Amino acid sequence: MVDGAVGTARRCWALAQNTAMLLCIAIAITPAFKMHFWNIGAEGQVLIGGFDCATVMLKLGGKLPTPLLIIIMLIAALAAGAVWGLIPAYFNAKKNCNETLFTLMMNYVAIQLIGFFVLEWSVPKGSGQIGIINQKTQAGWIPPLFGKAYLINILIVVAVTVAIAIYLSKSKHGYEITVVGESRNTARYIGIDVRKVIIRTMVLSGAICGLAGFLLVAGQDHTITKETAGGNGFTAIMVSWLAKFDPKWMVLTALLICFLEKGAGEIATMFNLNLAFADIITGIIIFFIVGSDFFINYKIVFRGSGKEVAA
Amino acid sequence: MIMFIQRAIIQGIPLLFGATGEIMTEKSGNLNLGIPGIMYSGAIGGVIGAFLYENAVGPENLNPALAILIPLFASLILSLFMGLIYCFLTVTLRANQNVTGLALTTFGVGVGNFFGGSLIKLSGADVPSINLTATSNFFKAKLPFAGDLGVVGELIFSYSFLAYLAIIIAILASIVLMKTRVGLHLRAVGENPATADAAGISVTKYKYFATCIGSMVAGLGGLFYIMDYAYGVWSNNGFGDRGWLAVALVIFSTWKPVVAIAGSFIFGALLIVQNYIPNLTMSAQEIIKMLPYVVTIVVLIIVSARNRKENQPPASLGLPYFREDR
């Protein structure tokens, strides 16, 4: 299992890249979760960000110098993710729509939208996939640093993680998010504009998801499919939750989940099982961690010992 | 046209099972996002049951009653088990409902694909699927007089017993929820558990029963998909994202099982309508597949904007209830 995850240098880099992407999405949804805004639309926000980025890459690739192109791609991705976060936030803040269900539906709108354009723009026509964008010119690809393809990706994610950690714990915005999360009534009472905080936080959350989409498309896959986010939008929720919304622990939980996936994949190949085995292991481990919370937060005292029962 | 309506209804039935199950669950205040996983496990439960029985006696000597009862029972047990995991974690151990639900979906889809994949290997087939046509034929048995009634027979009487069961369960669920004391208590638990608790209703008991029964109903949706729609052929990931469509249908029907019946037929029609529009490009099909979700979002917005009490989600949906920290 260890061998499957970090056996070779190549596997190490792949593991680091996967962890970084999962971490980036987990970091993105953390502000929203801290606000008790159950954003399960990260999958869609990542996809739509990646899609906008791929669109720019496809339509403007070769017409602009690469640095400028990458900047436009980044802006497009951030904007798309932010819009995808803004829509449910607006309706939650103004009309009190259930945000969990709303964001869930937005995922599938994004997936089908990408399905549509992937077929429209497929190369060659009718193949049903876009293929590697700008394979010859590599226009819009994030260049390797010191010969390592994913190094820039990983550094960007580290920077974002640190920034969000500081934003949440040290800034006024972070404080407002915490108060709104604990009690919207209290927040209103002490004069926080709850609607503004919800919308602002979701735009931020969506934009970072868009960034994750940008990194996936420009830095890793160089193409866009319905599978670009690969379920990480959902997995990230568990990562964020397991770390109790604390960015520094998220590095570990993201690593744990990726490690499990790779390692369980290796076990599956070794014993000739199929890859779904990894999902089962991940599920069971999360059940145990989620369940063990109870025993950490509460002390069980059995009655009948003659003493008073403490809660 | 008749063909189209028939296919739409068959497409809609798994969604109806899932949505009815989820409505019962949500009425108790549990937002179970594990529904897709539960439907997968319901499906694989049926497949395992049927596979073992077919292999034990051979596809030729199946006893019709057993061929139906064994997969049905296996499917119900597996989805009950999934529901129990969810209840134990969220109600007894007070875990977060969203996280537990999503983990349950990962787990359930994993269980489905793992056992599905293993059975495919066991059966040594050339194609990556399991074929249980013999069992499926029993599940697809129609009413004997369906063929004699012309168009009406085709439209109304030509489905298998599980399809009628879905509609009966949806109607029953409506009656129980809205007309009986049990339903009143259940809705009280979903709206405001503290009040229900004060009125002497056991919140834990209602949450457990509603969620577990809801899971079993949703699991039947998976069973129907495999045994009726797919002619007993299991292939990994074949069920697709129908589980999430079922969750969408819950919102679309504004938490009313009877409305879900009509909604499921509409969703079913949207799933297959692309096959009946001539000269439709592949890409336009993708847009049509987006429609159920867009419609659901619109319904969600309208329901919230109009703010009528009877159309709202249960007030404490997704919130845990701890008696001690009021």
Report what the structure shows.
The complex is a heterodimer of chains A (311) and B (326). With 311 residues, chain A is mainly α. Chain A has one domain. Chain A contains 12 helices and no strands. In chain A, helix 2 runs parallel beside helix 6 and helix 11 packs antiparallel against helix 12. Chain A is globular and about 60 Å long. With 326 residues, chain B is mainly alpha-helical. In chain B, helix 1 runs parallel beside helix 7, helix 1 runs antiparallel to helix 10 and helix 2 crosses helix 11. The radius of gyration of chain B is 20 Å and the shape is globular. The interface between A and B is large, with 47 and 56 residues.
In short:
By secondary structure, chain A is mainly α. Chain A is built from twelve helices and no strands. Chain B is 72% helix and 1% strand.
Structural class of chain A: mainly alpha
User: Structural class, from helix and strand content of chain B?
Assistant: mainly alpha
Beta-strand percentage range of chain B: under 5%
Number of strands of chain B: 2
Q: How is the biggest beta sheet of chain A arranged?
A: none
Give the biggest sheet of chain B.
Answer: 2 strands, antiparallel
In total, the number of strands of chain A is: 0
